[in-house]
Structure formats: structure tokens, C-alpha cells
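Cross-posted from the bioinformatics board.
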Amino acid sequence: MERIPILKLGETLLVTIQVDFHDRVALALQEDLCEKIVNYSAKGVLVDISALEMVDSFMGRVLGNIAKTSRLLDCNVVLVGMQPAIAITITELGIQLTGINTALTAEDGMLLLQKLLKAKSGARTTHANKNGRR
Amino acid sequence: MLIKTAEDRALINEDDIATVRSSVKRVVALLNFSLINQTKIITAASELARNTIEHGKGGKAVIQVLDEGERVGVRLLFEDNGPGIPDTAQALEDGFTTNKGMGLGLGGARRLMDHFSIESSPESGTKVSITKWQEKI
């Protein structure tokens, strides 16, 4: 079966969906990604869907689940490159990808991941300082 | 109304959903639908093809090209011999689902297309028809 490659770039994983996002391929990606996030202690995942020509409710659910599961594993997901026609269609279809971070390009997505990571480590330091003062 | 072409696609397992999607894509691209409308039609086809397999236990899709002189259109029929839908009005509501889905398939497909109709009974299964029109240039 086809599998979508997951590339490691420092603390980030890069996923580019360039094949037809078959149901089984989508579910396999969800599993593979969770495994790699844990193995590499990845802090961010960039999912590029610029080559996807459509997203139906099944794919939408898988993408949403990927974002939710990753967050449970202390990892942020940014979805990049959604085609305008897909954005219009899934809105009309009623798919709610609420809570999913998006960026227009891969470059913007990487910047957003860095920002999210910084905000998180910043929050941790502040918390530690407060405890230290007590 | 003239049915210019019609092609059948079997819907047995999930791989057939992708086959139907690519067949529909080829047809709507030839009819010069805008990219947004192409995406809407392919998405609606994908939703209904999945319903046919998951709820209808398999069936077929028919892709028709329609010609009314001033406008052309694509009509997609999804037919199965499954158990039927007891309450079609309820099945069209967003969020109504009997399995793991989001419950957007039927209602969503109706919103994405110009025409939508459904017939369902325990004896003859479920038949869904969706159409989208395109003005001739």
C-alpha cells in the first residue's frame, strides 16, 4: 500500500500529501505520524495539502484527528497550502476544522510553528520563575 | 433534455471511491466547470460514493452528461441494494450519523449541487441523484 513519507527537520516533521488521499492511506498516515512524533520527540508537524484537489468529510475528519492526537502528544500541527476552492467547498459541506492552525505557505507554516514553540517554552519559564520566587 | 453520455462505475470497496472521483473529475473538466464547481462536484461525488459503500453495502455510480441546449450539466446517480434509509428527512440533517462519520454526507452533497433527490426503501435500496448545471459559453 502507498504510504505518505514523513520527513524529520530538526524538531519538526514534514508531511507533503502528494498522492490521492485514499481512505486507507489517510488512516495509515495518522498512525505513522503518531509513532514518529513520539520516536523523535517532535514538537511540530507541517502538513502540506497544496497538491490535494479535494477534501471530503472523511479526509477532513482524519486531518482534524491528526491535529487533535498530535496535541495530546505535545506537538503542534500546522496545515498549509489549502486551495481556495477546497476552503469554499468544505465550508459549504459543513466540515469544521476549528482549532487547527493554518498557514498559506510552507514558509509561513514553519514560522508559525516556531512561534508556537517559543510561546510554549516562554510559558514554561515564567511558570518556573514564579515557583522559584516563592 | 438529452443524456449525451453515461458511464457506470462499480462501487464495491473504498478504492472505487477514488475511481469515481477521477472519472467525475475528467467529465467536469471537459464540461468547463469553474475550478470551484469542479471541486464541489467531486467532493459531493466522494461523499455519496462512500455512503453507497458504507451504508448501502455497495452498488454503482452512473455519470451522465446532460445537454439542454442553453446549458450542459452533469448528473450523478448513486444506487445500492442496501437496507434503505428509514427516515430520509432525518438522514439529511447535519450531524445525523449511524456510524463513525461526521453525518455531513447527504446534507452536504445537497448543498454543493443544484439539484438533489433521494428515493429509499428496504426493498429496492437507496437511489440518490445529484445534478449541477453549467451555462454554455
